[in-house]
């Protein structure tokens, strides 16, 4: 898990909007395996270890269903510590009959894909050892192949699913954006990420510390896709965790140099990428 702790910059918390908090809580506890860290009438914070919040749910008073063909969340991705953990949750999905949207072998990782009741995309995955990843100069070699589910299930056949392991982290986030040129400048020159993979003119993967990706960016909802309404189901914001105060100060300066707006609210710095995806900048605790 060294790709999700200092000195690497990584995604810490994802905040999403939902139509029904109670319906979402049932899903995220019973299907995904989160625990409730904190709850109010219209919001909840979810955790795997009882200490770190990975996902925040919010039910706006005037919420509307998820809008198609807009920028925002493609999926957030929960990284499990062991391959056997992925096997156990796949067995859980099969036993409960919960539908999956996909199951892929990406060479660097193995992944399952599904959606919450509001259509917010979720990936649950486990990494192969970084020593086995192949690099072509600065680009990591990835693919989308069929997952060998039988081989995976054999690894966790005798073990019972007990929810998300305590060591689960927010592995990455994948976003719909309106275009890639200004977006790449924002995330590389502004936030300091490196490009580690390109998928033609429509998708870009970036990371810190030679991870296969902390953030995915795509234009699959159409070039020039609009920002969704503020009260729409979907992404509210996500948190980037920077190594220390010096790196936070440098990042804010770089963002301002490229003309990105950075606001400070009660000591917290907030910015938006060129497609309106809201990012909270904080330092590792």
UniProtKB/TrEMBL annotation:
Pfam families xref list: Glyoxalase
Highest taxon of the lineage: Bacteria
InterPro entries per record: Glyas_Bleomycin-R_OHBP_Dase, Glyas_Fos-R_dOase_dom, Glyoxalase_1_CS, VOC_core
GO MF entry, a single one: lactoylglutathione lyase activity
Keyword field: Metal-binding
Name of protein: Glyoxalase family protein
Span of domain VOC: 9-127, 169-284
């Amino acid at each position: 898990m060294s790709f999700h702790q200092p000195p690497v910059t990584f995604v810490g918390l994802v905040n999403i909007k939902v139509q029904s908090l109670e319906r979402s809580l049932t899903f995220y506890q019973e299907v995904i395996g989160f625990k409730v860290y904190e709850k109010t009438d219209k919001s909840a914070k979810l955790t795997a270890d009882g200490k770190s919040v990975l996902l925040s749910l919010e039910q706006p008073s005037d919420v509307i269903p998820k809008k198609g063909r807009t920028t925002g969340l493609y999926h957030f991705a929960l990284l499990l510590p062991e391959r056997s953990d992925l096997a156990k949750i796949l067995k859980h999905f099969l036993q409960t009959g919960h539908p999956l949207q996909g199951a892929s072998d990406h060479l660097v990782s193995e992944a399952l894909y599904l959606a919450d009741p509001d259509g917010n995309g979720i990936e649950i995955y486990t990494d192969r050892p970084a020593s086995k990843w192949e690099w072509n100069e600065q680009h990591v070699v990835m693919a989308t192949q069929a997952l060998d589910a039988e081989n995976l299930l054999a690894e966790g056949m005798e073990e019972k699913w007990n929810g998300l392991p305590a060591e689960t982290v927010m592995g990455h986030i994948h976003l719909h954006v309106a275009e890639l040129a200004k977006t790449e400048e924002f995330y590389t020159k502004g936030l300091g990420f490196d490009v580690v993979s390109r998928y033609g003119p429509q998708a870009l993967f970036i990371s810190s510390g030679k991870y296969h990706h902390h953030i995915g960016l795509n234009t699959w909802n159409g070039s020039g896709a609009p920002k969704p309404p503020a009260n729409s189901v979907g992404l509210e914001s996500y948190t980037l965790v920077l190594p220390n105060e010096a790196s936070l100060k440098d990042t804010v300066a770089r963002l301002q140099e490229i003309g990105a707006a950075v606001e400070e609210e009660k000591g917290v710095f907030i910015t938006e990428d060129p497609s309106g995806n809201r990012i909270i900048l904080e330092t590792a605790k």
